[in-house]
Design a protein that fits this description.
- The protein has a domain of 110 residues: Vaccinia Virus protein VP39 (Rossmann fold).
- Helices cover 32% and strands 22% of the residues.
- It contains 9 helices and 8 strands.
- 37% of the residues are buried.
- It is globular, with a radius of gyration of 17 Å.
- Strands 1-4-3-2-5-6-8-7 form an 8-stranded mixed beta sheet, sandwiched between helices.
- The protein is of the alpha/beta class and 226 residues long.
- The longest helix is centred in the middle third of the chain and has 13 residues.
- It binds S-adenosylmethionine.
- The site of S-adenosylmethionine has 20 residues, from strand 3 and helix 9.
Length: 226
């Protein structure tokens, strides 16, 4: 089911056009869309040329905004497929004039239309939709099709940081990632009762923590060949 578009959405998006790029690939088959490149000119779009980090499924951008403030030495591109929520995120970044945070409105399956191979240092997957039905498993952001995309985008030594409240999604992610040759570090089955030093809360995370639910976290990487 499609969400109804917010009122004045197009005007609001146009007002923050310097902060958010709207992919034109929506409603096209991603397999053909990614063959025709429309690469983002990141070195001009961000104010400084510096390491690129991605957040995929950024929602209203609470994590992205805080991360960009804490890490002015990184450029963060926050990706989200829903225009209804990315507009709020881009408005916050524009109001705060954050030089190292930009947004891309597109589904993760289209990322290779806009980003070059081996350009990303780290991918954050925060509270991705769990898609509990088996028939929707390929939509989970740690399904094999997405892992292949991430592998091509990540630089050698790059990694994926995932947080979720959903144990089934967490187990699924570990299974898929290890089947894909990835190794793990920084795994926690209860992040908020662990000694992890500087967690940046997301919008969904604050809701789950208020309900007393454990938060699962991992870092996954490709071991370097010797
Ligand atoms: C449960 S919300 C979590 C939002 C935010 N990360 C947080 O933790 O508060 C998941 C978000 O992922 C987005 N999403 C789901 N599938 C996606 C995809 N294939 N590509 C990009 N975004 C996606 C949804 O639109 C939604 O905004």
């Amino acid at each position: 089911m499609r969400m109804r578009r917010k009122k004045h959405l197009d005007e609001r998006l146009a007002a923050v056009a310097d902060w958010v790029y709207i992919s034109d690939s929506e409603d096209r088959d991603f397999r053909s869309a990614v063959l025709q490149k429309d690469y983002l000119d990141l070195n001009h779009w961000f104010e400084k040329e510096q390491p690129l980090y991605l957040e995929i499924g950024c929602g209203k951008g609470r994590f992205a905004v805080e991360y960009a403030k804490k890490h002015p030495e990184h450029n963060l591109l926050a990706v989200e497929k829903s225009a209804n929520v990315i507009v709020d995120a881009a408005e916050t970044a524009a109001a705060e004039k954050l030089p190292n945070l930009r947004f891309l409105k597109c589904g993760a399956e289209y990322l290779e239309r806009h980003l070059r191979e081996k350009t990303v240092e780290r991918i954050f997957l925060n509270f991705s939709c769990p898609f509990p039905k088996k028939s929707y498993a390929s939509h989970r952001l740690t399904a094999p099709g997405f892992l292949q995309i991430y592998k091509r985008l990540l630089k050698d030594g790059g990694d994926i940081h995932q947080k979720t409240d959903n144990r089934q999604l967490f187990e699924f992610s570990i299974e898929q990632m290890s089947g894909f040759g990835m190794a793990f570090r920084g795994v926690s089955l209860d992040l908020h009762h662990s000694d992890f030093p500087e967690n940046i809360m997301t919008e969904y995370e604050s809701r789950f923590v208020a309900l007393g639910q454990p938060i699962y976290r991992l870092e996954a990487y490709f071991p370097q060949q010797k």
